Amino acid sequence: MREPSLETHAPWKQRYRARAVLWSQIARNAPTRGVACTHAGGTYQLHGWDVRTGALTQLTRRPEGIVSGGIFPDGRHVWYLDDDGGNEIGHFVRAPFAGGEPEDMTPELPPYASWGLSFSRTGNALGFTLADADGFHALLMDVAPDGALGEPRLIYESGDFTLGPVLSRDGRLAVVPSSERAGKPQFSLLAIDATSGEQMAELWDGPDASVSNARFRPLEGDCLVAATSNRTGDSRPLLWNPRTGERTDVPLDALAGDVTPVDWSPDGRYLLLCHTVAAAQRLYLYDLLQHSLTRLEHPAGTFSWHAESGTYFAPDGDIYAQWEDSRHPPQVVALDAATGAQTGVVLPAGEAPPGRPWRPVTFTSSDGWPVQAWLGLPEGEGPFPTILETHGGPEAVQTERFEPGSQAWIDHGFAYLTINYRGSVTFGREFREAIWGHPGELEVEDMAAARQWLVDQGIARADQVLLTGWSYGGYLTLQALGKRPDLWAGGMAGIAIADWTVMYNECADTLRGYQRALFAGAPEEKPAQYAASSPITYVERVAAPVLILQGRHDTRTPARPVEMYAERMRALGKPIEVHWFEAGHEGPFAHAELGIALQERMLRFAHRVLGAQN
Length: 614
What we know:
The protein is of the alpha+beta class and 614 residues long. Among the domains are: 250-352, TolB, C-terminal domain (Neuraminidase, 6 Propeller); 358-611, Alpha/Beta hydrolase fold, catalytic domain (Rossmann fold, 3-Layer(aba) Sandwich), CATH 3.40.50.1820. It has 11 helices and 37 strands. It has an 8-stranded mixed beta sheet, with helices on both faces. Helix 4 (442-456) crosses helix 5.
């Protein structure tokens, strides 16, 4: 362990500041225009993108930064959720691509929480789902040729967790992923007539399966949908025609692991697929005419995508992919659509000081389940002081990414292990669903097993393993400190959950719906389980020092549960520090200087805690 390197130009700080492209998107009907979420001055903002020249023009100047949005199909406007200080509650607005003041798209609605917009390919309709105290409401709006917006009209609502809607090319058909049948994070797809609101069809694979990731084929008059189902145990692509009811499962028996549709080719012949196994990705093309699968030979690393952004077919015939690995910041590269070979860099990242590579490892948990993880090691021989990190989600996966925080720890002589605990996706349905109904139990077992593996391998010093994580990972940090207090030297929890019941009463309505699905009920229905899953229940058992980093404007993991946790810790005379910052849930990731300041606090904390042992 080295003294914290805090000078302005320390290599670990330069990695935070290195320009990165979080995602990009091209206007489908104006392919010379796009939008990119990037930071060149330290804070992620939305930029208009001249696709021909690569030139970027900054469109947003939000002090807290912004990490989500998109571009209208006609290329005239860029949209985003205009919230209060990053609290993720507000109104969708659209800003002119050429620059200018944003326009409120839904001025007649009260402020709402929502996870994004979708558009028809022709640009004549848009849809979004907002959440409020009454549940989830899927809305559609007509878009006139001159860009004028119609009034929002309701096509579906439910008290259960709902996503979408996804729109057909002509905007006449909407598909809504709904968890109403399951009452847990499993979906059926509802096909709804966009004009009348009448439900036309449903694709449901039974009470134990989930159908999601719907994408309409982009052809005139076509309503074929690509989606995924996990009824076999792994997520696999399928093709569904809501008008006829015909469904075809794409035959991919030779591939183990999850396979997800990423994008349709413009001619509708090919599906771009992402295959993920053991947290490693590979892109494939599936030819619907030849019924053949082609593996793309692209660089190793992580390819990100969401709703036609990130990784997609480009208008020039290439595939544009948002790519990164443990030593290279996110950037947009061009891949040959036939072979996958990288043909160029479309939107480059900045130069970052060299870092140490991650390598994949696997260990066995207490009940025999294999758990995958990524390991980064400093120079020299172990054992080392060690950071055990848990990702957010929980329904996410840690792939090989550029994580400035991990390299900061490694620079300072720490080993770093980030684990895909039970609940992570891409390891099969049973692995993902194992935590449902009782979060914070099996994940902690996996964390304890990871520590034991690190010690047995001679990587970690048994008395110098510290926990960290953000969001759900911050929750698991606090939960493990209380449930297995003898194992940890300390814990650093970012934007954490400390009490699930209080969180339920104070969080955004989008998260409240997910929480009911995760627990299979609200707090009044499952009081014992909410208590058993809450770190505040185990405060009396916490033995190690705790640092919590929390945002004042966070509506996903709100402030009050952390305040209560800290009050209880202090009343018991236990060492705890809470640092509050003026941002929301995405603040530490959207603003480089905030990320640096929080990482510096963690480095100081770790050095102080471990130094006190000597």
